[in-house]
Amino acid sequence: MPELPEVETVRLALVPAMEGRRIASARIGRPDLRWPLAPDLASRLAGRRVLDVRRRGKYLLVALEDGQTVLLHLGMSGSVRLHDASPVPRKHDHVILEITDANGGSPGWLVFNDPRRFGWMDIYDGDTHPLLEGMGPEPLGNGFSAPFLEGALAGRNGPVKNALLNQRIVAGIGNIYACEALFESGISPRRRARSVRGVRAERLAESVRSVLARAIEKGGTSLRDHVQPGGEIGYFAQSLKVYGRAGDSCLKCGGEIRHIVQSARSSFFCPACQR
DNA sequence: ATACGCCCCTGGTGGC
DNA sequence: TGCCACCAGGGGCGTA
Length: 275
Prior knowledge:
four-stranded antiparallel sheet; alpha+beta; DNA-binding
């Protein structure tokens, strides 16, 4: 489910709900997510004030007052919901946090729900976590540019689509936005990564940034289960130009959008417009 | 180092 | 209505 724009949308909702407030208590549903939750997770969270909520790629990072950081990945089907009243338990609620102000007042609840359990949560001390090391630059940050992208793709024989999904090359892009960025830049998902150079690299870098930024503005893409923490859906699905449009006509040339499978992921593209 | 296939898991959908 | 195959916003791991 969630790619960078959806995770960023979640982050924007969590900032006012968490920053400067306190995790009064934590309750764990089932701990066997992608990886087992730390046995002492609940006790390490309880009572801690939240300094800030950041994002790295598709990860949410919640910094606590005592130097610990909570790492949250939503996997394919994860969501975070905020509630004013104690929430009615739902299937697949895995972590429930009660959030109060510094004096214990105005309580709220945060619920991490994930049916498929491809997501996970961890807590660590210090600067970084093994899962964050080696991750590529933020596509909306200063470390990402056409020259960077060209360099990162150089020597790679696999399809450029696969390279865009590789979090070690650039962080946060998933299947939807990889397809969309390739369509907008007129590059075939099957093109060898190393052959994306010069003008093509410039167009691709610009399309990646542009499509992600526009998706954030629309609150992300809600296809099936993605919702924002307040329950709102994201509206970027209306702006998708190729993803999920197999058999429909290309918005640029009127030709037929095709569907292929690359590394067991669906790719959608226009064979005429994308070379 | 890179590339690929396999696996983790639940739920919704469409065909018969 | 029921059953079943197939598909889904991800990514780690083992193997060539």
